[in-house]
Amino acid sequence: MHKLSDLIKVRLNAHNLDVSAKSAEVIHKANQHLADLFKNKGADTNAYRFDRKVLFIAAENSSWSQEVWGVQESILKNLEKQFGKGFVKKIRIKS
User: Fold this and answer.
1) Count of domains forming the chain
2) Is 73 within 8 Å of 40 (Cβ atoms)?
């Protein structure tokens, strides 16, 4: 007899749902950290995609892109604490 948790893992892996769920979690945690870093500054920045260990962040304009660029190490360290070293390797920023 198989454990239910093992069956769920097999089904998630078969449909790549585990990867999609992890990606959504990375984006959510990154957005929370961005909000904490830029609270009271009115920044319009958000993580919108995570693919092949690269986190994509959009900024309202080039000034905010520079602000995000300045704190990207903080974002990476925060995500490393939550997901492990090397899970998120790089941040790409667009304005």
Assistant:
1) 1
2) no
